[in-house]
Queue: 2 jobs
Job 1
Amino acid sequence: MQTVKLGIVGVGTMGAIHAQSVLEGCIPRCQLTAICDPKAERLNLFSAVEGFASVDDLLRLSEIDAVLIATPHYSHTTIGIKALETGRHVLVEKPISVHKSDGERLLAAHHASNQVFAAMFNQRTDPFYLKLRQLVQSGDLGAIRRVSWTITNWFRTEAYYRSSDWRATWAGEGGGVLLNQCPHNLDLFQWIFGMPAQVRAFCHFGRYHDIEVEDDVTAYLEYPDGMTAVFSTSTGEAPGTNRLEVAAERGKVVIENDLFLFTRNEVPMSEFSRTDPGRFSAPQTWEIRIPISGHGPQHNGVLGNFVSAILDGTPLIAPAREGLNSLELANAFLLSTLENRAIKLPIDGALFNQHLQKLIASSTRPKPGVFRTGSDDMHRLTTNKSLSR
Amino acid sequence: MQTVKLGIVGVGTMGAIHAQSVLEGCIPRCQLTAICDPKAERLNLFSAVEGFASVDDLLRLSEIDAVLIATPHYSHTTIGIKALETGRHVLVEKPISVHKSDGERLLAAHHASNQVFAAMFNQRTDPFYLKLRQLVQSGDLGAIRRVSWTITNWFRTEAYYRSSDWRATWAGEGGGVLLNQCPHNLDLFQWIFGMPAQVRAFCHFGRYHDIEVEDDVTAYLEYPDGMTAVFSTSTGEAPGTNRLEVAAERGKVVIENDLFLFTRNEVPMSEFSRTDPGRFSAPQTWEIRIPISGHGPQHNGVLGNFVSAILDGTPLIAPAREGLNSLELANAFLLSTLENRAIKLPIDGALFNQHLQKLIASSTRPKPGVFRTGSDDMHRLTTNKSLSR
């Protein structure tokens, strides 16, 4: 195989961007062969490419090697399973599913070791986070003690939430900021720091918007080694903040406003505390500014890596199975709020799903039949009018 | 009265600093008339001033108008009550007491409206916090939605904790970072933002040091109007952070590293969200840097204000009764951890005291008999060797 023949399912906001990138030649050795969307006017935007209204037809009739899934969240599972079962390589948008049980079903459909299955965690290509991960993994920071990520620059207007009827509903999207905007941050969090032992989260539902799902979250995390963390997010705050602070034995890292600042302790803080005779003394520090420019290749980087993984066996930037962790964190934050208690990880996926089904059942929002969890909704999804992101 | 004749009880670390300030003439119209400390070598440092080993003798024999109490926390209550009962004006170091019930007993001893009773919340004189309070109270920020204060620059060494046997014990100090370092921050918090409706806190006991009390705290607060907040502190982190971030309708304020930054929304964020047709748009902002230099007169400012209140009737910067709020917050954070649940305010002071007594009873640390809560320990305190701060 010299090139990868790609089919894109869902050419709403993100799918259309991906299609355009491939058509413009931004992804070497990748050819856009087919697209699929129930909306004819969207298919018409890409008239040079074979278009299908139904996923079944796409998978049955087109000669694609790989599928990129950019549909509403619930259908990632159903369409992903279907695509994997045809043997195609699959790249799925984040989140890989809406809830842990669906995520596990999706991953279970991936058997073949030579079948590439990746997830669109494009922020893993950002050199700020790559550098932080390197500092953590190399031991340059020493043991990590506390992390605080305030990520409130996901401001969204009411117009945004009104733009699709599936959006920000339990039946249509399965969650709010944790499912739509934060999968990136949650993925980076587990990618850099690993998974916590337990979480206590405080989600607010429709705090800032006329929606039923969470648009404001404060979560407290405890790790097996004692590390603690706070993760705060909101789609209601403007101007918002994106600040990641890491307190470690070897010093403090702050990533904010395109700056990477490392205040390095000459002596690790706990060692200094134990050995220094002063009562009010503190370690000498170096103020280090690590120069980083730009935010990396992002979506095109992940898509190009997917193609290289298929053609050359290049390791994936974001294997789909790792997408289960951000999903588990999002589910755990909601579960903690709904059960009003700390939640130990791994969570009970069935318990979370029970809560989700109750929320869907008691929702007063539009509930198109197609937006149901479970394995039998794939066909209906493919004919629904609301595939837009 | 032309000058205030002051007596200082406890001339350890803070008391000695206050005594020196008065002797050097830093406090107009204030005369250091007497000091009291059980340690003779401390009294000898101030040989120009009448010295007493016992509080009872000081209050009975010296011609002082006012008393400044700078003893270990528990005795603030007992000595404070005794001093108030003699009719003296009283300035008490923070915290006003160790727990809410003691604080209420102390305040109940203050009857006379012309008797001045103040607390040493010196950070209320800091122009950074004065300016923030002004912006909040004037409505310039609009409704406050979220506050985050990371105040981890209270690093203390093991040598600090070993410096006195009463320090960082349940019996001797009654708490850790919340009782010793953070009363300032908790007082500023309530002074600027008011009191929360409930809190959920996660205190870690001896996380960084060989102590039994809390040296690391993460607290989540919810306010009656829906405002949320996170308060994080530690004495184990170096280099530490002191960053106060306020997300309000009219924009965001960040106080950090001697900068006061106000990113002002031209349109309040919720109004913009409701009315703007864009899906990914956000309010236009002004980046405002409010010039502030220095951190104000601090301790001398509060002491001078105490003198002016006595001589001129000047309103107090920090009336002692307001010290109950920071105490209630500190107690509530501990109570939430000990009961492993969210705590509604006002707290049940008796319930907190039950927990504290259990902690004292089960402690394996030195428990000098003098470091007991209750009203009968005053005499013993005045003869104990460990009045040092």
Note: The CA atoms of residues 17 and 336 of chain B lie 35 Å apart.
Job 2
Amino acid sequence: MIYHIRSDARSIEDRAHALVVEQSVEMPISAIDDDSVLAEIVGRVLSVTDLGSGLFEVRTALATETVGDDAGQLINMLFGNSSIHDDVVLHDVELPGALVRKFGGPRHGLDELRLRAGAGKRALTCSALKPQGVPVKKLADLARRFAEGGIDYIKDDHGLADQTYSPFAARVEAVAGALGAVRQASGRTTRYVPSLSGDLDCMRRQLAVARQAGIDTVMFAPMIMGFSNFHRLVRENPAVALMAHPTMAGAARIAPPLLIGKLFRLFGADAVIFPNHGGRFGYSPEICRALARAALQDWAGLQPSVPVPAGGMTPERVPEMLDFYGADIMLLIGGGLLAARERLTEETAAFVAAVHGHRYE
Amino acid sequence: MIYHIRSDARSIEDRAHALVVEQSVEMPISAIDDDSVLAEIVGRVLSVTDLGSGLFEVRTALATETVGDDAGQLINMLFGNSSIHDDVVLHDVELPGALVRKFGGPRHGLDELRLRAGAGKRALTCSALKPQGVPVKKLADLARRFAEGGIDYIKDDHGLADQTYSPFAARVEAVAGALGAVRQASGRTTRYVPSLSGDLDCMRRQLAVARQAGIDTVMFAPMIMGFSNFHRLVRENPAVALMAHPTMAGAARIAPPLLIGKLFRLFGADAVIFPNHGGRFGYSPEICRALARAALQDWAGLQPSVPVPAGGMTPERVPEMLDFYGADIMLLIGGGLLAARERLTEETAAFVAAVHGHRYE
């Protein structure tokens, strides 16, 4: 584990030691009379590096036995109580290959999401159904127009749950129906990615409704449903591709490349949505690049997760974003397309054309 | 909703507006052509107050329809995407009484936890089983000695899950057996509060195991299991009292009195553990006082949740803590008792006597 800690040079050794105790046995070492606990369970400080400006990198080791194979317990042991300390950021994690393979990562990932969209090696396109509060019929009409514009995926706004104004089951039926009609008429295949909400059982019911409507990709929010339940749904639904939304990620305290690029992927997200630099959120270009790399890079044989930069994106930024990220990406533009209002289909088609026709620098 | 935003005076109106858009429709207002959405769904800024030093209090209103009755969706709408913005803290929430009563709050709360312990109106006492890594037999022996010292509740260390060295079922059986033996021998009743982990189904299985062993109080981590699943377990188990642990609360970005004192209580925690000031964590006395008050105060008829200050507490601090919090409290001392090693029972008895015999200032 790699933590970044704000400290002065005099205190950092003690602080690092306190961190590994907090994240392992959570009690005074002097009160432990079990030799195997002292030898194997108490976390260890491997190294402390001064990064300058009062910031230190602390590398630690933790017994994998404390994690078992539960995703919730992994984050509990990585950062649980330390998340309450405001001087420390969980920067990165190196896990044994066996543990990585046990969690298993994406079932579909980049290749399958491209294959399903018939996208070859190009970047994928995505938009979002919104706003909250409009009736199902209107959402289905938006979906139709996105599809006529040739987009690959359409996700729910992450605020759409099972509200009275657009209940989940009615929404899925209407949107899937609208997309089916476009497919019939034009041969164009656009996938609807509904957002699951509620407790685990509720999500299972929603997933069953979606499957019945022919849907094979869904979205959820790992930080709201909890990692263990996220990983449970992944294991229960091998045929379904999963797109992870960063709501409640509050990632200022866990490095975004780790949380969204690495951990969400580890537990099985096939695509990870994250705030692009220069949009409505404050991630830097460096963080975005590191996040995309973490989602895609070789990691103990896991499938790559599709990076999905979003959050205030506009069609004008497509060339710049493609040059920045390359083609192993899904571009998600929601409000920036919806702002075209009656010209939604045309604006979508222009977005799609810009992605399909891009010549990389 | 009340947010605290760092801003300059020139930008705060725009920033406040961007916040309510982010937390409601999440798209450009100009792209919304539905009058009822504009009138009812788009969040509203009610007031902006300059708190000085570049901090502003922003009061907002949000349609309750966007929440429905799902706990996860509530936190999604309160802070989901905004949690990714590092200039904003979710400071407090005012909910309609009907919504508060729909979530329902604690089933047992302060009165019942006292009643079960035969504690009258005094403060409750609690300790913790640790460290990670010792076998079940040793944990059961620790529990026996705490019980012989007369403690009311013994919780699992929150790192104890279902690891091979102390599997949940074996641990529950052994600890419950040890406490049963003390009850037989001395008439003293001490309650074991095992920590649930894993996905919702796994927690249900653990809860069934615990119930079979006669256990009526369990602990879990709302931030790891997710609010919707937390609330589901509460509703499914009306007879079981629930103690909430703050692991992963990373509460720097959600005011601790709101998150732990108010929201954990809202969804049904009968007792809420939080880091006491002057211990291993950085909460100030003011935050701790506000948190305890939030857990206890009148709120649309909800039961009070028992505040449980913890985190590096010692027996020496008992008088000071009781004078600070009053008797409506459970004092949790873990490592501070375990440090007594072979004198654990005596040290526990001294802690218990200090609580029982305290004369409030």
Note: The CA atoms of residues 164 and 262 of chain A lie 36 Å apart.
